[in-house]
# Entry
Amino acid sequence: MIAEAGHFALILGLVIALVQGTFPLFGASRSNYGLMALATSSAHAQFFAVLVSFLCLMYSFIISDFSVVNVALNSHTLKPLIYKISGVWGSHEGSMLLWVTILALFGIAVAIFGNNLPETLKARVLAIQGLIGGAFIGFILLTSNPFNRLDPAPAQGNGLNPILQDPGLAFHPPFLYLGYVGFSVAFSFAVAALIEGRVDPPWARWVRPWTLAAWCSLTIGIALGSWWAYYELGWGGWWFWDPVENASFIPWLLGTALLHSAIVVEKRDALKSWTIFLAILTFSSALLGTFLVRSGILTSVHAFATDPERGIFILLLFVLITGGSLFLYAMRGPVLKGGGLFSPISREGALVLNNLLLTTGAAVVLLGTLYPLLLDAIGGGKVSVGAPFFNATFVPLMVPVLLCCTIAAMMTWKRADLLGILQRLRFVALTALIVTLVVLWLQGTKAILSAMALGVAAWLIIGSAVELSERIGLFKVSLMESLKRAFGMPRAAWGMSIAHSALGIFVIGVTASSAWKIEMIQLMKPGEIILVEDYKITFLGTSQIKGPNYSGIQGQFEVNMGGDVITMLKPEKRRYEAERSETTEAAIFTTLKGDLYGVLGEASGKEAWSTRFYFNPLVSWIWAGAIFMAIGGLISLTDRRLRVGAPKLASKPISNAAK
Amino acid sequence: MGPKSRRLSFILMVLVPLGISVALVLAALKDNIVYFYSPTELLVKKPPMGQRLRVGGLVKRGSYLLEDDGITSRFVITDKKNEVTAIHKGVLPDLFREGQGVVGEGHFNTNGIFEADKVLAKHDENYMPPEVAEALRKNGVWKGSEKP
# Structure
């Protein structure tokens, strides 16, 4: 019964979404306020319908109702509750339902928080959201209905792929989808603005919080995913330039560019057309990501549920949404002229450069991801494009982004004094140079690239600190006055400083963990000792273990440092009976200095085991950097400016502004 | 700065990064991509010695053995027509099994043995890497439908 209720609620959601996507649009063009008001109420109704549907599926998973195909294929009675719940989005059908639920959530959020929006803009934004929602609910109902019944119902389910039974991965998809789908709001605002032919600073102020929220979620989602890959796949790596990873990284890069270009629209009323274009591209890349992951056309280390037929359907939706919006852009884009002039050396100029490099970077990642497909399509053979390609193309593009980051933060609008800024930064540059030289001196000239990367990190972190202290007049005015200024500083400025220095922390983690990683593979018998970095590791032996839905073998390794036992590493090899598959669970001892990472391999002869140990220096800084970036974004999101509604009169029709 | 030189400097600002990235991409596509071969294609196309490549097929039944050092594994990759002997130093992925699909990445040493420093077996036990499925289908070995 519950499954049927869920199915019915989803159909209801489709009908409401179609109402939401059509009548308000019509109403907005006819100035019919009754029809426009329909947008808000239908956004509420659509969310509740889809939410009920989602909860029904979750309920079927929790009570292990195996008469539902999706539950039977992806769940098992012995699974812990949290993985029964996360199993809801472990499959294609469920994850698409999560996708539309989050979309409807953003719809209702715009309806609630968008009270200060002009009536027509709000109606149009919600209508576009409704159309996207309708398309995707239709997709679910036609090709991937999660509520299909199975008769007769099996007594037990197939279980969930064991490597997905993990806390990191339980929360990775919801955050990723909050990011992907969150960009739909920026997209809807962009399309609505194209329909209205009007983009102005208030528009940018309305779009910004949604973009920021989506960007923060995507940052956390990607970080969770890479953290999961790091500890679960047992290779000690955290990023593989895998198609599925790239699919989430491209929207992140474009979203980052969008965040920055929207600032220019807001403050200087310039770059409008570009910002609209970027908003369309960002959401399109999120759709493309969904398509790439779900269609299975790319070989990936994490190609989960895939089906070519559905892939074609998603591709169709992608072409329709992206093609349609780009067509609209081509028709209406030229109207969006005007805005303030600025010299190339100015904050606007720096943000243009940032946008250029980030979008080029995104294009390069996209090319590397799709190249194997393109080459295969023209019969050029099967290739794989991996880390070497991206290191040679993407990384050099990001170096100027990082270098300009510090300078741009100090630039003034319209026209900036580059020499003056460099003078103010000479202390920072000197420190960065010293860091580079010290690393070279310690590590030798082979480490030249790593040394430079650490120099760049110092430039970012210290540069942000100097910018912040100049802003609050540290040491120039009294400490009390500085504190007062610090509290009075706009939250967005705090957010920027935190996010930019977080980028530096991230760079340090990436550099150190890849340049000075130690890897040791050996055969060990109980009692044998190996030395990894400063750690003395003694193999004590193995024992049998039994978990709720798996059994396995656990290795015991005692870790000594300076004569004291500091921890025990217990890597496992698990066998999940229900799913008939095995997983390797790495044991990780994390410190700020680095991670000691142990993996139990195969048994060889009597008692001897192959083992693998890594020391990954500063690797946790990678995720710390990502989290601080997201925190920076969240702080910026609380900026007062974004909550105070702009007076409606401030927005003029484009024809006047262009004069 | 007049409007003309301003426009020029913006155009340069756009063209220079674009030019640099196109150059980077072209250089990288020449050197940094890895071709996939089935054992039969290896015989036909004869890639140059020492080149980095991927070899995929099925792990031949009964071919897997662990060498005396306890960490080097040796196995045969087959497409049921031709085969290649591969070695891998380290721990094989959990889903590595005899009779199942596998893709190794590495190079051939002077003895004609494929030294794979990366071995990919898939997370899902029903899953066959698309390249492997197609290579097997070409040889008429793979009887599965479009969807492996």
The helical segments of chain B are 3-31, 39-45, 130-138. The first helix of chain B runs from residue 3 to 31.
